[in-house]
Amino acid sequence: MITLNHYLLLSALLFSIGTAGIFLRRNLITLLLSVEIMLNAVNLTFVAVGRFNGSVEGQIITFFVMTVAAAEAAVGLAIIIALFRHRETLTPDAFTSLKW
Amino acid sequence: MDAALFYLFAAISVICSLGVVGQRNPMHSVMLLIGSFISLAGLYVGLDSPFVAVTQIIVYTGAIMVLFLFVVMLLNAPREDLAPGGQVPIPRNLKVVGGLLSLSMAGMLVWALSRLAPTPFVEDPQAAARVESVREIGLVLFRDHAFAFEVTSILILVAMVGAIVLAKKTV
Amino acid sequence: MPTIDPVLIFQISLIGVVFLTLQISAAVLVYFERKIAGWAQDRVGPNRVGPLGLLQPLADIVKLIFKEELRPKAADAWLFYLAPILSATTAFAAFAVIPFGPPTTLFGLLDRPVPLQVADVNVALLVIFAITSMGIYGIVLAGWASNSKYALLGGLRSSAQMISYELSYGMALASVLVIANTLSLRELVDQQAGVWWVFGAIPIPKWNVFLTPVGFFIYFVAGIAETNRAPFDFPEAEQELVAGYHTEYSSMSFALFFLAEYVNMVTVSAVAISLFLGGFYMPFLPDSFGLLWFLLKLAVLLFIYIWMRWTLPRYRYDQLMDFGWKRLLPLAILNVLATAAGVLYWG
C-alpha cells in the first residue's frame, strides 16, 4: 500500500541527492542539474499532497515551478556560456574574484 | 501493481539522480537526469495527474534538457578532471564535510518523515476524477491564478531577453 | 486457477500486433519508396529479388544484419548505442495512443466491444506532442557521440530544425484542440463521425480539416520537418554531410535509425488522420469498416510523403529556418487565434 509518506520520503531523498550534488561537484553545469533535481523533488511533493487533498492546486503550483525552472535554466546556462568565454573552464573556483 | 510501479519508478529516479551527481561526464549527467525526469512523470501518472506528467516530459525533457544538452555540446563537455589549465581537485576534507552535510540533511528529513503517521490516500473516485481532469486544472489556473499566470509570462520574456543578452558574443 | 478475461488478452496482444505491424509497414514503405522513386525518375525500381522485387526489403534486412557493427574509436560507447534505441523507441511509442478502428467484439469472441487502440489516455494529444519532443534526443546524441564532424553538423542542424518546427507543430495541435475541446484522441475522432451536408451526390464528412484547413497544412509541413523528410531532409543532406547524424552507424544500429524514420512517417500520418481526417470514420460505408478506411487514408498520406520526397528539391538551410520562424510560426499563431475567434462566434 503506497501512502503519502512514501512519496514524501522519495521526494526528501531526491532533494538530498540534489544538495549533495551542490556540495560535492565542481562543474557549473552539474550544479545547475542538481538544482533541477531539487526543484523536481519539490514538485513531486506538491503533486502528491495535491492528490492527497483531492485538489488541483498542487499541480498548478508545479506548472509555476516548471516555468521558473525553465527561466532559471535559460539564464543560468547563458551565464555559464559567458563565464566559459572568459576563463575556458567550468570550475566555480575559477570565478572567485569580484572583477577581472 | 501500483506499489510495484511506484517502487520501480522511485528506484529509477533515485539511481539516475545519484548517477547525475556521482559521475564526471556532464553529457552522461544530462542523459541520466532525463531518465530521472521520465520516471518522475511515471510517478505523476500514478498520482492521477497525467497532465502534469505530460507537461513534465514536454517542458523538462523536451525543452530544458535539450538546452542543457546543447550547452554541453557547445562547450565541448569539459569534464571535471579534464579541465584546461589543470584541475584543482576539491580538498578531501571539504568533500567529507559536504558529504556529511548532505547525509545529515537526508537523515534529518527521513527521520522527520518517519515520525509521521502513515497517511494513505483516500480512495475517492470523485476526488481522483477531479484531480485528473484537465478542464478543472484549466479553470482553477485561469480563474484563481490568472494574475500569477500572467506574471509568469513576463518572467519568461525577461529570462529570454536576459539569456540572449548574456550569451551574445559582444556585450 | 483464476479465469483470465479474454478482453485483457486481446488488449495485450493488440500491443504486439501494433508493434509488429509498424515494423512490417516500415519494410513495405521501403519497397514502395524505391518503386515510387523509380517511377518518378522514369526507372523500373527494384525488380530482381522475388516477383516485382517484392522481396527486396527482406534482402535489405538480411544485408544489414550481416554487416559489421562499427564504432568509431573516439565515440562515447554508451551514448553511441543509446541514440538509435531512443530514436526507434520514440517512433514506436507515439502510436500507442492512436485509435485506428471502431470498438470491435472480434466477430463475437469478446463479450464487450473493445476499442482498437493500445492506450486510451485522457491527454493523448499531449502525449503525442511529448513523445515527438523526445525524438530529438536520438539524433542529437547520435551526432555528438559519433565524434565525427559530419555527424555533429547533421545532428546540430536537425535538432535546430526539429525545435523550430515543433512550435508550429504544437500550434497546429492547439487549433484542433480549440475546436474539439478535448485532449482525448478517441473523443476527438468520435466527434468527426457523420456528415455535414450532402453536396450533390458527394457527402462532406464532418472532418476537422474543413474547419481548419490552414491547421492541417501547418501540421503536415511541420510533420515533414519533424520526421526529417525531403524537402526538409537536412540532417542527412548527402551532398553536404555524407549521411548526417548516422554517418558513423552501420549494421543494425543504422537499421534502427532507418526503421525510426519510416515508423515516424507512419505515426505522423496516423496522427494527421486522427486529428484532421476523421480517423477511421468515413461516409458511404458502415463504421465497422473503420480499420480499412484508416489504412486507406494512411496509404494516401504516405504516398504523398514519398511523392514529395522525389519531386521537390531540398531547401537551403537558412531558407528552412526562415520559413519555419518567419512564415510558418506566425501563420500557425494567427490560425489558432482565428480558430478560437471562430469557435467563440459560432459556438
Give a nutshell description of this structure.
Chain A has 100 residues and is an all-alpha fold. Chain A has helices spanning 4-24, 28-53, 57-87.
Provide the fold topology.
The complex is a heterotrimer of chains A (100), B (171) and C (347).
Chain A: H1 4-24, H2 28-53, H3 57-87
Helix pairs in contact in A: 1-2, 2-3
Chain B: H1 2-22, H2 26-46, H3 50-74, H4 92-114, H5 125-132, H6 134-144, H7 146-167
Chain C: H1 6-40, H2 56-66, H3 77-93, E1 101-104, E2 114-116, H4 124-145, H5 149-180, H6 185-191, E3 195-199, E4 202-205, H7 213-226, H8 238-241, H9 251-276, H10 290-311, H11 317-346
Helix pairs in contact in C: 1-9, 1-10, 2-9, 3-4, 3-9, 4-5, 5-7, 5-11, 7-9, 7-11, 9-10
Describe the structure.
The complex is a heterotrimer of chains A (100), B (171) and C (347). Chain A contains 3 helices and no strands. The model of chain A has no long low-confidence stretch (mean pLDDT 86). Chain B is built from 7 helices and no strands. The longest helix of chain B has 25 residues. Chain B is globular and about 55 Å long. At the A-B interface, α1, α2 and α3 of A face α1, α2, α3, α4 and α5 of B.
Average pLDDT of chain C works out at 81
**What share of the residues of chain C lie within helices?**
55-70%
Largest sheet: number of strands, sense, barrel closure of chain A: none
Quaternary status: heterotrimer
Which spans of chain A have pLDDT < 50 for at least 5 consecutive residues?
A: none
The dominant shape of chain C is globular
Low-confidence stretches of chain C: none
How many beta strands in the DSSP annotation of chain A?
A: 0
Proportion of β residues of chain A? Answer: under 5%
Q: Assess the beta-strand content of chain C as a share of residues.
A: under 5%
- The end-to-end span of chain A amounts to 58 Å
Please list the strands of the largest sheet of chain C in the order they lie side by side: 1-2
Biggest interface: A-B, 72 and 93 residues
Average pLDDT of chain A, to the nearest integer? 86
- Overall structural class of chain C, as computed from helix and strand content, comes to mainly alpha
| Helix count from the secondary structure assignment of chain A | 3
